[in-house]
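Lecture 7 notes. Example A: sequence first, then its structure tokens.
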Amino acid sequence: MTDSSGFRGLVLGAAAGGGLPQWNCGCRNCRLARDPASGVRPQSQSSLAVSLDGHSWAVLNASPDIRQQIIDNSALHPKALRDSPIKSVLITNGDIDHLAGLLILREKQPLEIFVTAAIAEIIDDNPVFRALDPTFVKRHTITLEQPFSLLPGVEARLFAVPGKVPLFMENGEPELQLEGEQTVGVELIAEGKRVYYIPGCAHISDSLIARIDGADALFFDGTVFTDDEMITLGVGQKTGQRMGHMAISGPDGSFAALSKLDIAKKIYVHINNTNPIWRAGPERDMLEASGFQIGYDGMEIDFD
């Protein structure tokens, strides 16, 4: 990425939990991702970085792959002996693929972390996160709908989206469209631009449609193309809905809902290893023909 000013985003990781290829999966996509000649590139776990000046960056979700993501993106490299352009980290839910990367960022580096009270409770309940020295790492507990400064010049706001508690917190059958502090979307406003990051969402409600319509960019949950794709492929027993994610396809899918909205850039992220949009085919063609983009590691988005 060029070192210039302007509000923009950098997709650090476009895949859902487990990445592509997933370490123990032999599905078609994972086999292709292991073959350098296939054209299907490996993808790391979901994370987005944003900046206004190219020098200071905020990371949205700390993937377990964050060390490699920093290596792969020169904009995030240290510029001095002990240094990081990453100034803040925001967590949208308590899933391992969004939270575990905080443990990589424990090297006595000044950092601000933004979380809801529900996510803060998960961190406090797990003593391993005490490795984040509070002398260097300042944590902010953010109330929903409360504007705050994520970076100088970048205003953020968290809002509830339908989802569920993290897998490791499930006790019996969880509520699958729970709205509260456990799963949030992020609104970013800078230089007159309005951008949304929603990597996990179980349903697009009328209120969510009203919020995101007219946005300059939307990064949205693309976990599964069809609700039952993991079952159909024989790699799992859960539907997308059971995992807290809506499907892309179908009359109630995100493609149908988002196609009706006036959003300048629509980018799918948090894409499961089973999703056919990773490779050339009718599913990917349908999305791209309608102006949607498929996120990928290293993708740069200018919000102008």
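Example B, a different protein, same format:
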Amino acid sequence: MTAPHPKAPQHAPLRDDRRVVLVVAVLASFVVGLDSSVVNVALPAVRSELGGGLVVQQWIVDAYLVTLGSLILVAGALSDLYGRVRIVTWGLVVFGLASVGCAVAPNGELLVVARALQGVGGALVTPSALALIVAAFSGAARAKAIGTWTAWSSAAVIVGPVLGGVIVDGIGWRWIFVLTAVPIAVTLVLVRRITGDVVSGARPRIDVVGAVLTVVGVGGLVLGLIEQERLGWASPVVVLALVLGGAALVAFVPWERRVTAAGGTALVPLVLFRARNFTVGNLATLSVYGALGMVGFVVTLFLQEVWHFPAWLAGIATLPPTVVLLALSTTVGAAAGRHGPRRFMTAGPLVAAVGALLVLGAGPDPTAYWWSVFPALVLVGVGIALMVSPLTSAVLGSVPQDEAGAGSAVNNAVARIAGLVTVALAGMVLGGAMSTAGLHRAAVVMAVLLVAGAVVSWFGIVDPDRRGSGSPT
């Protein structure tokens, strides 16, 4: 039986900067969330100007998620080695420059490249922002802070679709990428006010081979899944991408074990998975965030391409989940800190699954929004609110303080990769084009994934007050 991981220390090395740290973490995540939320609304307008159909729309979403999901592991290691504050700063600068590239892209290919560079910036920002909170808060205060971070970070998802829709309909989709400039500028100023940081004493080399295996594995699978819709399963490009991607992912775990055995620093510290809540929490993340990734992509396209909502109205119509999340996350985070995450992580996906099935009531008539899509999105929002903060607390509460960056990176990578895979699969689920029947098939897939996440959480998650902070059995 493997010895349990030591508990995270209860001191908070950035406690003197708590307020600034929380604001910086929220704004940094706001930048990443804003970009993600506005892009879905702009996809029909981008297709009209640059062409490419559903395949280009998928790549605009997934090029960002491929680099974000694969490099976020490297970013987590960099965060632990060189400091959360420094890596957040680098990430914001890269993200800002890539946003300018998106705004001026003359064709779909260059837009996809710029989106991939945005993913690099997002990868640097995401784990470091959350790890800052872990370093500044402890105990119940940490759970509440994570709830606050979840709620206010979600404001980006509220502002993004509405403001993005207005901009797309008014002055053009390119201007949505300018939106990131303001929060980036403000955050860079505030970062300089943080007086401390958390940096590992040792400076081992970054696991470059592990990073390459991750990028090739994730990128190859996504390339194959997306391009099969256009080229067919028998295409050499599709076959080669799937084979290389699968082989790279299969080789990843043995390579990480080898690095660890040789005394190096693995890209993914496999020792983290000795903590039961860490392992189970990431399995739940894989299924639940896969469902949520499909919700955002499919519903937004359906509203604009089948019901012909203008971009601004589609933005408003997809707000209910975020409004509910913003209203409930802090309260749920505090409650989960007192009572444990297991019940919340089980109930949340089940409520969201019921919401996903309500989408089956949507038909060709747009007025069906009020008795199908609207209540569905409200229930999805309630489910997300019940799950997100407890899930984050369960996962990060089970890792040591000095590996919080890596733990956050792994969990974020799992979430992003789950979303990008379901978006890559959207072409098969939708049948190559958006339709009412395709929406119904996607709703069933969402519900199945959400129920799977609930089952995994109920049987796998251990409340810390009963068995310790997620230590293994």
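Note on Example B: Confidence is low (pLDDT under 50) at residues 1-11, 466-473. The domain at 15-196+267-467 is CATH 1.20.1250.20 (Growth Hormone; Chain: A;).
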